[in-house]
Design goal:
Oligomer: heterodimer
CATH architecture of the largest domain in chain B: Orthogonal Bundle
Shape of chain B: globular
Radius of gyration of chain B: 27 Å
Order of helices and strands of chain A: HHHHHHHHHHHHHH
Number of strands of chain B: 2
Radius of gyration of chain A: 26 Å
Number of helices of chain B: 16
CATH class of the largest domain in chain B: Mainly Alpha
Shape of chain A: globular
Number of domains of chain A: 2
Strand order of the largest sheet of chain B: 1-2
CATH superfamily of the largest domain in chain A: MetI-like
Order of helices and strands of chain B: HHHEHEHHHHHHHHHHHH
CATH class of the largest domain in chain A: Mainly Alpha
Number of strands of chain A: 0
Helix content of chain B: over 70%
Number of helices of chain A: 14
CATH topology of the largest domain in chain A: MetI-like fold
Distance between the termini of chain A: 47 Å
Chain lengths: ~300, ~325
C-alpha cells in the first residue's frame, strides 16, 4: 500500500508538468486562432493610412468608420447582400422541406425500399459524375443564368438526410405511429400533428446547416450565373477582394482610393461574415448537435 | 384461417403460400401508406436529376460531344480523350500536384484535430475548455472566398501582417503567393487554422464515451496522464479515427477545388494546378466538354478505388469499416 501511494505522489508531479504543458499548448492554439480574427476587426476600424503602412498590430489605430461607410456606398455589394439573403432564405426552405420529406419515410421500418434508397444516397457520397455532366444537366433544364440554378442543383444534401433520418428513428417511437394508425390518422396528418412538433431540434439543426452552406456558397454561382444582377454576395466579394476589380470605380478613383480600398476589404470581410457571426451561438450549438447525431450512424 | 389449412399440406407449400400472403400484404401496406411513398417522390427526383443523370452523362467522356447533336447523338470517340489526357505533358504535373497537396493535407489535417481533442480532454476547467472550443470552432463558418481573401491580405508583400511581423526580426518582405514552393503549405496550414477546432467535435464525443473503468484500471496500474492518453484514450477513439481516415482518403482526389482555384495566380500555377481546377478551366472556360469529362471521370474512378481499398484494408486489420 505504502509503495503505491509513494509512486502516485511521484507521478502526480509528472502529471502536473504534463497538464501544465497541455495548458500552454491550448493557450498557444487560442492565440493562433484568435489573433487573426482580432486583427481583421481592428484593421477594419482603423484609418486607411494606418492599414497600408502596417501600423495596426492589435487594436484599431486612428479609429474611424470610413471603411464601413465605403462598403455601404457600393451598390454592387448591397445588391449582392440582398441576393444572398434571398438565396439563403428560399434555398434553405426548399432544402429543409425536401430533406424532411425524404428522411422521415426512410426512418419508418415498414417503408419498403428504404434500404435501396439509402444505398442510392450513400453511393453519391463516394462517386459522382463530375463537374461537366452536372453542368450539362443544368444547362439542358434551361436553368443557366436563372435563380433556380442556385436553388435546385444543390438542394438535397445527403449528409443532412442521414442526420434527419437518424433523429426521427431515435425520437419517434413505433408505438406512437401504431397508436395514431388506430385512431385513423393518415401519414401526412401524423407528420403535421406529431412528427414536426417533435422535430423542432432537428429542424433547427437543418436550417442552420443549410443556411450557412447557402450563405457561403460561391462556386455554383460562378459556373451557372452570367448576369451580375443575380450574383450572390460571395461572387461580388471575390471580384473585389481577390480579383481586385471593382467595375463601379473608374481609374482615377482607383488611384485615389488605393489605401481606402485596402481598408474597405477588412470592413467587407467583417460585414459579410456578420450574419453567420450573429447566429454563431445558435449555430455552434446546433452544428455540434448535428455532427453528433450524424456520427452515431453514418 | 387459410394459413392453418395450408399448414397441414406439407412444408414446401407453406413456404410458397407464405410468400404469396406476405407479398399481398406488402402491397396492402404500401397502398395503406401511399402518402409516405408520395412524399419521397420529389426528393428522389432531385437525387436522380442532379446526381444520377450526371453519372449517365459521363458517356460524353467517350464521345465527341457536340452541343447541336446532344449527348446521345454525338459520335463515339472511344478512349481518345483519356489517351490524350494521359499523354499530355500536363498529366504528370497535375497528378503530382493533386496527390502532393492532398496527401500533405490529409496527414496534417488528420493529426491536428486528434491532438487538440486529446489536449482538450485533459482540461478539467470546464469554462476554459468551453472557451477554447467556442473560439476554435468559429473559423469553420468563414466562407471560402473570405478565407482566401484573408490569406491574400495577410500574406501580401505590401503591408500584409505576416510580412510586417517578419520585418520586426529583419526579414525582407516575401511574396508568399507568388512563389510556387510555398503554395502547398499555405493551403494546408490555412485549412488547419480553419477546420481543426470543428473537427475535434467527433473525437471529443468519442472520448466522452470511453469506459471510465479503464481509467480506474490505468490508475491502479500507476499510469501517468500521458500513458493514460496513449493506452486508454487513443485505443478508445481508434474506431472513429479509422472511419474518418477512410472518409478522408476517399476525398483525396476531390479536395478543395474552391479554395485552390481562388488561391491560384499566374505565378504559382506550377504547384497549384490540380485536376479539378484543370477540368474547370478546360471544360467550362474552354468549352472542351468531352475532354474535361474524361479527366473528371478519371478523377472519380481513382477516388472510388482509393476509398474502396482503404475500407478493405481497415476491414482486414481492424473491426471498423464504412460498410
Amino acid at each position: 500500500m505504502g509503495k503505491t501511494k509513494n509512486t502516485s505522489i511521484k507521478e502526480s508531479k509528472v502529471d502536473r508538468i504534463f497538464i501544465g504543458a497541455v495548458y500552454v499548448f491550448l493557450v498557444l492554439v487560442l492565440i493562433a486562432v484568435l489573433y487573426p480574427l482580432i486583427y481583421i476587426v481592428s484593421a477594419s476600424f482603423s484609418s486607411a493610412s494606418a492599414v497600408t503602412s502596417g501600423r495596426v498590430w492589435l487594436f484599431p489605430v486612428e479609429p474611424t468608420l470610413l471603411g464601413y461607410t465605403t462598403v455601404f456606398k457600393n451598390p454592387q455589394i448591397l445588391q449582392g447582400f440582398s441576393n444572398s439573403l434571398f438565396y439563403t432564405v428560399v434555398g434553405t426552405f426548399i432544402s429543409v422541406t425536401i430533406t424532411i420529406m425524404l428522411a422521415y419515410p426512410l426512418s419508418r421500418k415498414t417503408f419498403y425500399g428504404r434500404k435501396l434508397i439509402m444505398i442510392l444516397l450513400v453511393f453519391t457520397m463516394i462517386f459522382d459524375g463530375g463537374l461537366i455532366p452536372l453542368y450539362l444537366v443544368v444547362k439542358n433544364l434551361n436553368l443557366i443564368d436563372t435563380i433556380w440554378a442556385l436553388l435546385l442543383p444543390s438542394a438535397l444534401a445527403v449528409f443532412q438526410v442521414i442526420i434527419a433520418r437518424t433523429f426521427f428513428q431515435s425520437t419517434i417511437p413505433d408505438e406512437l405511429v401504431e397508436a395514431s394508425e388506430m385512431d385513423g390518422c393518415s401519414d401526412i396528418g401524423f407528420i403535421f400533428k406529431v412528427v414536426l412538433p417533435l422535430a423542432k431540434p432537428i429542424i433547427a439543426v437543418l436550417v442552420l446547416m443549410y443556411a450557412v452552406m447557402k450563405w457561403n456558397m460561391y462556386f455554383d454561382a460562378l459556373i451557372y450565373l452570367k448576369s451580375d444582377t443575380l450574383y450572390p454576395l460571395q461572387l461580388i466579394l471575390r471580384s473585389i477582394l481577390i480579383l481586385n476589380t471593382d467595375p463601379s470605380a473608374n481609374i482615377e478613383d482607383i488611384l485615389k482610393m488605393q489605401g481606402l480600398k485596402e481598408l474597405m476589404k477588412y470592413s467587407l470581410i467583417v460585414i459579410s461574415s456578420l450574419p453567420v457571426l450573429v447566429l454563431y451561438p445558435f449555430v455552434q450549438k446546433h452544428f455540434v448537435k448535428g455532427m453528433l447525431i450524424g456520427s452515431v450512424k453514418g | 384461417m387459410k394459413a392453418e389449412v395450408v399448414n397441414q399440406q406439407g412444408i414446401k407449400n407453406v413456404g410458397i403460400e407464405k410468400e404469396i400472403v406476405t407479398k399481398s400484404s406488402k402491397w396492402k401496406k404500401i397502398r395503406k401508406h401511399w402518402q409516405l411513398y408520395f412524399l419521397v417522390v420529389i426528393p428522389l427526383i432531385f437525387l436522380i436529376t442532379f446526381k444520377y443523370v450526371p453519372m449517365a452523362g459521363i458517356l460524353i467522356a467517350f464521345k465527341d460531344y457536340s452541343v447541336v447533336k446532344g449527348i446521345f447523338g454525338s459520335e463515339w470517340a472511344g478512349m481518345k480523350y483519356f489517351q490524350s489526357f494521359f499523354e499530355s505533358p500536363n498529366f504528370s504535373l497535375l497528378l503530382k500536384n493533386t496527390l502532393g497537396l492532398s496527401i500533405y493535407g490529409l496527414i496534417v489535417g488528420f493529426i491536428c484535430p486528434i491532438v487538440l481533442a486529446l489536449a482538450l480532454n485533459e482540461v478539467q476547467n470546464g469554462r476554459f475548455k468551453k472557451f477554447v472550443q467556442t473560439v476554435t470552432y468559429a473559423p469553420y463558418f468563414i466562407s471560402t472566398v473570405i478565407m482566401v481573401s484573408i490569406i491574400i491580405l495577410f500574406l501580401s508583400p505590401n503591408a500584409g501582417i505576416v510580412n510586417n511581423i517578419l520585418g520586426l526580426i529583419g526579414i525582407e518582405p516575401i511574396n508568399f503567393l507568388g512563389n510556387p514552393s510555398y503554395f502547398k503549405s499555405i493551403y494546408v496550414w490555412s485549412d488547419v487554422w480553419q477546420n481543426t477546432g470543428y473537427a475535434t467535435i467527433i473525437y471529443l464525443a468519442a472520448l466522452a464515451g470511453v469506459d471510465t473503468q479503464l481509467y480506474e484500471a490505468a490508475k491502479v496500474d500507476g499510469a501517468n496522464r500521458f500513458q493514460k492518453i496513449m493506452n486508454v484514450d487513443l485505443p478508445g477513439i481508434f474506431p472513429i479515427i479509422i472511419v474518418l481516415l477512410i472518409l478522408n482518403v476517399g476525398s483525396i482526389m476531390s479536395m478543395g477545388f474552391e479554395k485552390i482555384y481562388l488561391l491560384q495566380n499566374p505565378l504559382n500555377t506550377n504547384s497549384s494546378e490540380v485536376i479539378s481546377t484543370y477540368v474547370y478551366k478546360v471544360g467550362l472556360l474552354g468549352a472542351n466538354f468531352s475532354f474535361a469529362s474524361a479527366v473528371g471521370l478519371f478523377n472519380s474512378i481513382v477516388n472510388f478505388i482509393l476509398i474502396f481499398t482503404a475500407n478493405k484494408i481497415s476491414k482486414r486489420f481492424s473491426s471498423s469499416s464504412l460498410w
